[in-house]
From TrEMBL:
Residues that span the membrane, as ranges: 21-40, 60-91, 112-139, 184-203
InterPro entries referenced in this protein's UniProt entry, alphabetically: DUF975
Keyword Ribosomal protein assigned: no
Name assigned to this protein: DUF975 family protein
Keywords of the record: Membrane, Transmembrane, Transmembrane helix
Species for this entry: Blautia stercoris
Pfam annotation, one family: DUF975
Length: 234
């Protein structure tokens, strides 16, 4: 059984060890998951404080047709793919000082189209659940939380398997993960009193490094429970 203190301590050590690169990778995730052009974000944000889960559903409100289309294309084909690369950075940064170039991982090795498709489907699923009211959307955002991480290690996985495995990994862990997010509220206040600088230069990379620790913990637990039937070698 994992503990918040253990995950956060390990995440803090990893991000401190490779500080500058971690800040840049965290900034990329912030940009990739930001609400753009009046969109509604259901990442489970707690009281306006940064939620650092990596999945979002963007419900774009009508702005100007061309601008909205541009933002949607940018989200699907650039920002989502960069977010997977940033997640890959934090996973690898657990073991060594990963280079910033890892952020471009989603565009490499001929898997760009699949990475973009899987992330689009994740966003679409959360959006559809959100149509049933906000709470189901938030719950499903936790169910699908690990999709970018799974993609970061298996960029050729299809969206059905990625979503299924994420749901299995998060089974029984959604409330614990929600509480983990809540534990960063006071750190989020640092961002408020520093006009966001505290978030960029400390809170976000700290949170994302902790999320990587959570993913690896749940991945290892999932693998142990699927030793006879697992299809994917993480």
């Amino acid at each position: 059984m994992w503990t918040r203190a253990d995950l956060k301590e390990r995440g803090k050590l990893c991000f401190h060890r490779n500080y500058a690169a971690s800040v840049l990778a965290g900034l990329m995730i912030t940009i990739a998951t930001a609400s753009i052009g009046g969109s509604y974000d259901v990442r489970g944000t707690v009281n306006g404080v940064v939620n650092d889960s990596s999945y979002s559903a963007d419900i774009s409100l009508p702005i100007v047709g061309g601008v909205t289309l541009f933002v949607l294309i940018l989200k699907i084909f650039v920002l989502n793919v960069l977010m997977v690369g940033a997640v890959r950075f934090f996973i690898e940064n657990r073991d060594y000082n990963a280079p910033v170039s890892k952020i471009g991982f989603g565009f490499q090795n001929g898997n760009f189209a699949n990475v973009a498709m899987v992330m689009f489907m994740q966003n679409l699923y959360i959006f559809l659940w959100t149509l049933l009211f906000v709470i189901p959307g938030i719950v499903k955002s936790y169910s699908y939380r690990m999709v970018p991480y799974i993609l970061a290690e298996q960029p050729d996985i299809n969206y059905r398997d990625a979503i299924r495995i994420s749901r299995e990994m998060m089974d029984g862990e959604k409330m614990n993960t929600f509480v983990l997010d809540l534990s960063f509220i006071l750190w989020g206040l640092l961002g408020a009193v520093t006009c966001g600088l505290g978030v960029v230069f400390y809170v976000k990379p700290y949170v994302e490094a902790t999320n990587a620790e959570l993913y690896v913990t749940l991945r290892n637990k999932w693998n142990m429970g699927n030793t006879k039937t697992a299809t994917f070698d993480f």
